[in-house]
TrEMBL record, chain A:
Organism this protein belongs to: Marinobacterium stanieri
Subcellular location: Cell membrane
Record-stated family: Belongs to the binding-protein-dependent transport system permease family. FecCD subfamily.
Sorted UniProt keywords: Cell membrane, Membrane, Transmembrane, Transmembrane helix, Transport
MF (Gene Ontology): transmembrane transporter activity
Residues passing through the membrane, by range: 54-74, 81-102, 108-130, 137-161, 181-200, 229-258, 270-288, 300-317
Official protein name in the record: Iron complex transport system permease protein
Transport keyword on record: yes
Highest rank taxon of the organism: Bacteria
GO cellular component, one term: plasma membrane
Membrane topology type: Multi-pass membrane protein
Main location: membrane
Automatic annotation (TrEMBL), chain B:
CDD domains listed in its UniProt record: ABC_Iron-Siderophores_B12_Hemin
Task of the protein: Part of the ABC transporter complex HmuTUV involved in hemin import. Responsible for energy coupling to the transport system.
All residue ranges annotated as the ABC transporter domain in the record: 1-227
Record protein name field: Iron complex transport system ATP-binding protein
Length: 324, 243
């Protein structure tokens, strides 16, 4: 399954490099960019399309994997990565940079860096509140911290210094991978590797948890330590992707559902395929965004939500049928 | 040496001064009213509860035994089991190999054959009936080839047929020199199948011994507050509640 999805992801990336307002020989442009030439093709590929494609892939992979991990940990197919409070924390961090001009030394990457810090703070507060947690407490604590950070974010929006700053922030929050550079990847890639590594190290716990905490613990797996590592990993993934690309909804929730049947519903085997499928879906959605008629751009996060929400309603319907 | 020896086990208000032992090849029944501490006792031995007192596994303090080693030797079958995901039966049984870090196909098939679930290996566990699932959960435990099985009311919600099948499987495990601690409500089944019984009442041991020693009308009156007639003279013990 993984090789097929990897191939599909590479194909999607190639298509993504081809799509744009100007017709350009992709491989030639890529080669020229690698050699440091400043031809038009090199600039379009290296400065615009490559960062955009790579960001779409990494953001999608981070969201897909964090969704698979959290659903496995909470044993709940409707668990969303936003549950940890990391998304809202990241949004608040980035918004603060827009307003107060924090971290000037970080340049264009400042909102992303602040977002990562915001996600980290929100996550730490959530873990502190949840205590030596049962899964229900993680959801409650995540909801409480999300609400708090959401309220603070609303306050920041409320006191926007000028309409321009407000619209800039709102558009950023809608979620997009356009107009970002490779320096954003420098933040996202380590977060993907570390967060993904933390989650991957706990895949046996995710499998054991299929039959509940007691069974997992009786099989020698440490629930308290393992669940913290998974939540930390997921927060890194979600926080970094929100910090770089804003809110791209429903990917973390839906991708695991699409992939689960392909891995016989095993939560341990779901992680990598969910990351690959997330990367493919976000990149495809971004290709659709770029293919829209010129004018005001439809934001990537808006598109994923428009597609994701009906699918989510369908999922809830399916779940409901199980209980009736 | 005893396989398991429990000495002065204490768990907040749930267990007080519980001492018992489990020998190789023994089927030990834990009986008592609801809330007597049966599940708590099993959870302590499975390493799921922080206890005070001593639990020894072949002379070694349980908390000092490496968790993976403990999990390889002691398997826990909880009271209620449900898979969060629509796993295939073969994958559920494979879970039993987690303490060993492998998915030995031969042992998974052997456990499935023992429990009679071999024909459902490729079926989804949520498509099976409650009784069929009970055998799959047991197959999961057997696939880990544990020395000791701790089964917490495995007969609850099973019909007569499956109650017998599960008890036969546990007995078979003890014949192959494994041991079982079984918490059970049905006193007739307990008397018939178990080598020894532990009668718990409000977290304390009321009596330990052979079924005949433990299940006296007086003990049943004191612990369950019912009058009962006990007859061990026939082929099968008979405990009948009078009022």
């Amino acid at each position: 399954m993984t090789p097929a999805l990897t191939l599909l992801m590479l194909l999607t990336a190639l298509v993504s490099l081809h799509v744009g307002s100007t017709d350009i020989a992709v491989l030639e442009g890529l080669w020229q960019w690698l050699q440091g030439a400043d031809s038009a093709a090199a600039i379009v590929i290296g400065d615009i399309r490559l960062p955009r494609t790579l960001l779409a892939l990494t953001v999608g992979a981070a969201l897909g994997m964090s969704g698979a991990a959290l659903q496995g940990l909470l044993r709940n197919p409707l668990a969303d990565p936003g549950l940890t409070g990391a998304s809202q924390g990241a949004a608040l961090g980035a918004a603060s940079v827009f307003y107060f001009g924090l971290l000037p030394a970080a340049g264009a990457a400042a909102p992303a860096l602040a977002g990562l810090i915001g996600a980290g703070v929100a996550m730490s507060l959530m873990l502190l509140l949840a205590g030596p947690s049962r899964q229900a407490m993680v959801i409650m604590a995540g909801l409480a911290i999300s609400t708090l950070t959401g309220a603070l974010l609303a306050a920041v929006l409320n006191f926007a210094p000028n309409p321009f700053a407000l619209s800039e922030l709102v558009f950023w929050l809608l979620g997009s991978v356009s107009e970002r550079g490779l320096d954003h990847l420098v933040i996202l890639l380590p977060a993907l590797l570390i967060g993904g590594g933390l989650i991957w190290s706990q895949r046996r716990l995710l499998l054991g948890l299929s039959l509940g905490e007691q069974v997992a613990q009786s099989m020698g797996l440490s629930y308290t330590r393992g669940s913290r590592l998974i939540i930390l990993g997921a927060a890194l993934l979600v926080g970094a992707s929100v910090a770089v690309a804003g809110a791209i909804g429903f990917v973390g929730l839906l991708v695991p559902h699409l992939v689960r049947p392909l891995v016989r519903n095993r939560p341990d085997r779901l992680l990598i395929p969910a990351a690959l499928a997330g990367a493919i879906l976000v990149c495809l959605a971004d290709i659709v965004v770029r293919g829209m008629p010129p004018g005001r751009e439809l934001k990537l996060g808006v598109l994923t939500s428009l597609i994701g929400a009906p699918l989510f309603i369908w999922l809830v319907w399916q779940e409901r049928k199980k209980w009736i | 040496m005893d396989l398991i020896s429990v000495d002065q086990l204490q768990l907040d208000t749930r267990l007080a001064g519980v001492s018992l032992s489990l020998a190789s090849g023994e089927l030990l029944g834990v009986i008592g009213p609801n809330g007597a501490g049966k599940s708590s006792l099993l959870e302590c031995i499975a390493g799921l509860q922080p206890y005070s007192g001593r639990i020894e596994l072949e002379g070694e303090e349980l908390s000092r035994v490496e968790t993976s080693k403990r999990a390889q030797r002691i398997a826990f079958l909880p009271q209620r089991c449900q898979s969060a995901w629509a796993l295939k039966v073969v994958d559920v049984i494979a879970l039993g190999r987690l303490p060993w870090g492998d998915e030995d196909a031969g042992l998974i098939e052997k456990a499935a054959r023992h429990t009679g679930v071999i024909e459902w290996l490729d079926s989804r566990v949520d498509h099976l009936s409650g009784g069929e699932q009970a055998r799959v959960w047991l197959a999961r435990v057997l696939a880990g080839q544990p020395d000791i099985i701790l089964a917490d009311e495995p007969l609850a919600s099973l019909d007569l047929h499956y109650q017998q099948r599960v008890l036969e499987l546990l007995r078979k495990h003890t014949r192959e020199l494994g041991s079982v601690i079984l918490s059970i409500h049905d006193l007739n089944l307990a008397a018939h199948w178990c080598d020894r019984l532990v009668l718990l009442d409000a977290g304390r041991i009321h009596a330990v011994g052979t079924p005949q020693q433990v299940l006296t009308p007086e003990a049943i009156r004191q612990v369950y507050q019912v009058e009962a007639e006990v007859d061990f003279s026939g082929e099968q013990p008979l405990i009948r509640v009078l009022r």
